[in-house]
Write a structure and sequence with these properties.
- Two copies of one chain form a homodimer.
- Chain A has about 270 residues and is α+β, with helices and mostly antiparallel strands.
- Helices cover about 30% and strands about 30% of the residues of chain A.
- Chain A has ten helices and ten strands.
- In chain A, strand 1 and strand 2 form a beta hairpin.
- Chains A and B meet through helix 1, helix 4, strand 7 and strand 10 of A and helix 1, helix 4, strand 7 and strand 10 of B.
- The structure holds a DNA duplex (19 and 19 nucleotides).
DNA sequence: GAGTGGTCTAGACCACTGT
DNA sequence: CAGTGGTCTAGACCACTCC
């Protein structure tokens, strides 16, 4: 006989969780419906309430369940995700040379929203920092080269929850020509970053988006007001100008339960 | 005085976790170094070992820590992520009309790998299914329209871990012209999906990638051999032909600790 | 106030890693 | 073998929701 891999019965809270997952997937417990109480689970499975709780906790972490504190946990109703389309890069570029009236309020924060775009508390912080390590490599500059670091955050004042967040870097040498760009009180800048760069004669040739995902830390969870089991999409965006220089690097986070990134790749005809 | 929001001290395991996170971020506990034992933590913080464990468990779920069972948990050394570049779409198209020798082994599985591409156990399953709901909408066909469903999976035989996974749909009407396409024993098809479609006269005009992220379920965790705290990138890929029809929809998962998606958006010149 | 889930404890027992 | 983390229990106590 071959050596059997791991024929052992999985631990009790895994069993309970799997059973619940199956019942949810089959539709026995439809979205919005409350789960059995911990007490019910623990008697049905002849285990302690703590084990039953671990099972429910596990499903929460996997994003199937929402709830808490006093209320019964319910099967999560999937949010409709807002699509953030890469076509916006071209739209933003087209707007750069449009009249100021059209450019009006096209900041990073507003673009990601899709809902209630008007009434967000918007904050920008500008700092001068030296580039080092990874960033210096990306910009292809010497370590220590000064850069402007900009942190953007918008918050929904009604909930106190973060609504958008990004951090971006531009080597100072590229934007010295326009002192206004060093002043955060001008934010949100009408027309966005591409227009800012336009004022110092930089035209963006292409934009590279690098997408990955991470689990939010405790502070992320708190800041965004996220449910358990929701990853953060982490997008690093490189703006490359017509002289083939990386002129801006920006890192942005997007909660994966409400945002979806869409990219279109046109192919050459035969 | 104003009503204070929630000035309460956070729970003990959160405190411990936050303290550890800070020490890790500061470099006091560098990557690869073992954490304090649960016993040490519990005595330092004057709490039960269970509380200390919850703290460490939390950090694991957030992806900062790896380890387990008998061994001390260690600070995770970030994996180098393999970049999956959208330029491959064009490369795959260019190969379609290349000689078979060049096309050789460019299947989905191999493309995502980047490492040890040769020796993977590859499996494909073809099923005929009726399209309904969301998928019928995307293809813009009537509900019930028959389609070919293809599930691809590759497994690293040395570890038993899943290495790639995708599921794709093509309405049968588009590929009836070539019966070979209905036969899974021809997989991996030399030249990939685009070449398959080429054999029935379909040219792909553009590809849309929709990216989001989810937490792996218990079975995902097991199948991929993932560590705790690693989200899955979920990519839905729409292939649109020169007649502007959606001819294929494919959903693929990528573990976010080893894969990064890169998309380049070229902008029109001024 | 009754019922719910959340935190925490003390301790038993098991599984795994090292020496 | 000793030491580690993983699972599980029973029960105390707290915070929240709903009636």
């Amino acid at each position: 006989m071959e050596p059997q891999p791991t024929p052992v019965r999985p631990s009790i809270h895994i069993q309970i969780a799997d059973d619940l997952r199956i019942r949810i997937a089959r539709g026995d417990i439809p979205p919005g419906t409350p789960l059995p109480t911990l007490h019910e689970l623990s008697t049905q499975w002849r285990c302690s309430t703590n084990s039953a709780r671990s099972a429910v906790e596990l499903l929460k972490r996997q994003g199937l369940i929402t709830g808490g504190r006093g209320k019964a946990p319910v099967v999560r109703i999937p949010k409709r995700r807002i699509i953030r389309d890469s076509g916006r890069h071209q739209i933003e570029k087209d707007l750069v040379r449009a009249p100021a009236s059209e450019r009006s309020t096209i900041g990073e924060a507003e673009m990601n929203s899709g809902v209630s775009l008007a009434k967000l508390k918007f904050g920008a912080t500008y700092t001068k920092v030296p580039l080092d390590g990874e960033l210096a490599d990306i910009f292809d500059v010497d370590s220590g080269t000064p850069a402007l670091r900009r942190v953007y955050e918008s918050v929904d004042p009604s909930t106190g929850n973060r609504h958008s967040w990004s951090i971006s870097y531009i080597p100072e040498a590229y934007i010295e020509g326009n002192p206004k760009l060093l002043d955060s009180t001008n934010e949100p800048w009408p027309g966005g970053t591409q227009h800012q760069l336009y004022t110092v004669g930089i035209e963006i040739d292409r934009i590279i988006d690098e997408v990955t995902a991470v689990m939010p830390t405790t502070v992320d969870l708190e800041a965004w007001g996220l449910d358990d089991g929701v990853p953060l999409l982490r997008v690093r965006r490189l703006s490359i100008d017509t002289a083939n220089r990386v002129v801006e690097v920006s890192d942005a986070d997007y909660p994966a339960d409400r945002i979806e990134m869409r990219f279109t790749t046109p192919l050459r005809k035969w």
